[in-house]
Amino acid sequence: MRPELVGIISEIRSAGYGRKGELVEKYSKILGISTKTLYRMLAEASPSGRSKRCDAGESSLDDDTLRLIAAMMLNSVRGNGKQTMDIPTARQILQAQGIQIPVGDSRVNALLKERGYDIQGMKAPEPCVRMRSLHPNHVHQVDPSLCLLYYSPDGKQHLIRDEEAYKNKPFMQGKEKLKLWRYVMVDHYSGTICHRYYQTEGENALTLWEFLLYGWGLKENERAVFHGLPEILVCDKGSANTSGAIANALRSLRVTLIPHTVGNARAKGSVEDANNLIEKLFESRLKLQPVSSVDELNAYAEEWDALINANMLDGYDSRLTRAKMARTDLWLKIKPEDLVELPEGAATLLIKNAEDRKVDSSLAINYGGLQYSVAGMVGIRPAMTVKVQPILVSRDRKVLVSYTYDGEKVEDERLPLEMDEAGFRIDAPVFGVEFKRNADTVQDKARKELKALIGEDGVPFIEATDGRGIRALDAIAASGNSLVMPKVGKPLQVAPRPARRYSLVEASRYIRDRLGRFDASIRQMVIDRFPDGPTDEELETVCDELLEKETRHA
What we know:
Layout: H1 3-14, H2 20-31, H3 35-45, H4 63-75, H5 87-96, H6 105-114, H7 119-123, E1 139-151, E2 157-159, H8 162-165, E3 179-187, E4 193-199, H9 205-216, E5 232-236, H10 244-252, E6 256-260, H11 269-281, H12 294-309, H13 327-331, E7 355-358, E8 364-367, E9 370-373, E10 385-390, E11 399-405, E12 408-414, H14 442-454, H15 472-480, H16 504-515, H17 520-529, H18 536-552
Parallel strand pairs: 1-5, 5-6
Antiparallel strand pairs: 1-2, 1-3, 3-4, 7-10, 8-9, 10-11, 11-12
Helix pairs in contact: 1-2, 2-3, 16-18
């Protein structure tokens, strides 16, 4: 403490009642500090006269009990993040079990924070690792979500009210065919946003594929420059996103599909941020200016995408924060080799699955009028069936060959074989000039192993049995010595199964299905006549009697 402060503080402390306030006001102005600061300095310089406790900072509450309290409170946290058990409740439950908690609730709360058991901290999301992409169109993220917007058959726009959206039952129950889904795509590197709306009952592979073709294709709006295939597509593990049809189609485009784990929305944080921007900056306008159709809505959506990507929305700075530049400007830095145009014929990929082809004796397959060698692929062998699909983004007509071997999926891209004008393979050996043979297949290796076990000459299996061979004829004599004539047994008498009896509930359903009714009089008649329950035959008889009775009284 500065020497001049010592005298001031001493004077203030020794002042009589009613003078301290005046001196504090006076010296706070002289020192240029607030009265609050001067009072704090007085408190720090004034000893309380009490010695510090030897156990200060310690607690009589053991760690095991503290952890138990924290675990009970954490267990009470609901899916929406609400904590339904607090310290007093946990204390009461534990004390009823004979576990004593000798400190107050405020001290328990302080200890929870000191030891890192703070429930608010526990509810916080786990730390995440921020991923980076290398260039525009390296990674695209896709996310479909249901909008609080739908169109009735007459084309009128409707927004779901809050009281409808938060009921205990689905707010679109009975209106499934009117649902409007928002599909959003984001280029992870540049943050470029692309979104579109589809009126469909739910997520499905066909709608997702239609959106991917739109996002990766050229747009009608000349300002919407974003297009081209990515190297990686990130999405959630929805059945539509990871369906076999989508996965096969993406393989043909050389797009790697990476689905993230359920509940881990942060794995595609860029598209989650884009969804938030779309809701706040685009869909919020629809309540003020409704649009009459999905097509009209999509036209506005494409224009909005172009404007926000170019940072041209009036009054809003939509530049990418980490790059401090417009999203379109960053995407336009794409290199020619990274911009892979959507090929012709991509639209048919979803309905054209991988085709089966049989491997011929020369370890080749025929596809699309061309031959492809599959020699060298692990586990390949003649007469084996493999899956084949074209690689559409390959100019040299490559195909992807895939199959399962030893429980693992094997796949490889193969180029077509070159042929001469007579239809012979260019790489085939020429008579009298050279000789070639394929490497041993798994089948060839197994055949050689078995032949080695049998032996080349003489008695088979001599080497495998230390020279004894397999005594096949002796085995006949040995087995003949042990033959025993079977004894004839008594035929098994099977008792007939008892007829199944119906309960009163089952009988009522049966009669109601036959007659269309089941009243109290019929119920009492069944109880009186069949106390143990009627059989099939007895139920038929009852129904026939009742039908005949109705006919007579008709």
